[in-house]
Specification:
Elements: H1 2-8, H2 12-19, H3 22-33, H4 39-57, H5 63-86, H6 100-116, H7 120-140, H8 142-163, H9 172-200
Helix pairs in contact: 3-4, 3-9, 4-5, 4-9, 5-7, 6-7, 6-8, 7-8, 8-9
Length: 201
């Protein structure tokens, strides 16, 4: 529904209202799918809740709201990192192709540095943690790896739109939100699938 609202050019209040319902809906789906609580499930829920806080804070205007939202998403990525390390096969071998995230991080900072001003350090820290999360997601493969990559795409497009002068295109918000939702959904589904497979074994 939120994506349809974005495409339809509806009032900003409606866009915000639909946006802040997205992560609670995903959290509910995770809890329903896994009624037996586990540490991995609660880490997944924590990452989703922190992302929801970030979504809500980023609806505000100004650097203060942006930094607060950034901190929430930073914490969400830390929760994902801890989760990925705890999952089977995580943290043992990160595929060679995840070195692309190192190149992405360097290009990301080089491109945005002049427009970041006082936000250079927090954005750089966030980018490093985001890249680490995506690399560990790559080590898990499958849906989780794709989800991690899409998270990088979503946040990169968001940052370019905010900090790179002259960068804009009509479908900017749609691209940001569609890749973000796909990222969160694929990570959640991939993690739950691994948890079910591990229990079956």
């Amino acid at each position: 529904m939120h994506l349809a609202v974005l495409v339809g050019g509806v009032d900003d209040a409606v866009v915000t209202a639909t946006k802040v319902t997205l992560m609670p809906a995903l959290m509910l789906a995770v809890l329903v799918a896994r009624p037996r609580a586990s540490t991995a499930q609660w880490l997944l829920v924590a990452a989703i809740v922190l992302s929801w806080c970030g979504d809500a804070l980023l609806t505000g205007s100004g650097d203060g709201w942006f930094v607060a939202g950034l901190l929430c998403f930073l914490a969400a990525h830390v929760a994902y990192i801890v989760l990925f390390v705890r999952l089977p096969a995580a943290g043992r071998r990160v595929p060679w192709w995840t070195l692309a995230y190192v190149a992405w991080f360097a290009a990301f900072l080089a491109l945005l540095a002049t427009g970041l001003g006082g936000l250079l350090v927090p954005v750089a820290i966030y980018g490093a943690v985001l890249g680490a999360m995506a690399a560990l997601a790559g080590g898990l493969g499958g849906l989780v790896a794709v989800g991690g990559a899409l998270f990088v795409v979503s946040d990169s497009v968001l940052a370019l739109g905010r900090f790179l002068p002259g960068y804009e295109f009509a479908a900017h918000d749609l691209v940001v939100m569609s890749t973000y939702l796909a990222a969160q959904g694929l990570i959640a589904l991939g993690v739950l699938t691994r948890m079910v497979a591990r229990r079956a074994r």
